[in-house]
Design a protein that fits this description.
By secondary structure, the protein is of the alpha/beta class. The protein has helices at about 10-20, 55-60, 75-90, 105-110, 120-130, and strands at about 1-5, 25-30, 45-50, 70, 95-100, 115.
């Protein structure tokens, strides 16, 4: 599977590492080259400087051949915008994005996106730890 990941923070770098180790073709896109330090030395994918809401940057990252796109920057709006571009302009089959504000989930789902709220997931995990 060819995957483009927008954002090379802790989550993006970890996801890139996992997918690369599983044999997928991974391209990580970030606006800050310093972020790529989080990728392991044996990372076999591609790291590109660029903005995931810029169509030319996405094309350089291989979005036109991508099977999946994941947006995991720190900004909900940027993640959703990039995910919409990937889904509706480049017709990427599997598109997901991280959101912090769980109240936005339904709206983003109505746009055909698959949002993942790290806030909701973490709160559920903490509840399970407390109650279990």
């Amino acid at each position: 599977m060819k995957v483009v990941i927008m954002g090379c923070g802790r989550v993006g770098a970890q996801l890139a590492r996992l997918l690369d180790a599983d044999g997928h073709t991974v391209t990580v896109l970030d606006t800050d080259a310093y972020s790529f330090r989080r990728l392991p030395p044996d990372f076999g994918g591609t790291a590109l400087i660029g903005n995931g809401i810029d169509e030319d940057a996405l094309k350089k990252a291989g979005i036109e051949e991508a099977d999946a796109f994941v947006a995991v920057t720190q900004g909900d709006n940027r993640n959703v915008m990039a995910a919409q571009i990937a889904k509706h302009i480049f017709n990427v089959p599997k598109v997901t994005c991280r959101i912090y504000d769980p109240l936005r989930r339904e709206l983003y789902e109505s746009l055909g996106l698959e949002p993942v709220s790290s806030t909701t997931i973490f709160a559920q995990m903490l509840r399970e730890k407390l109650e279990g």
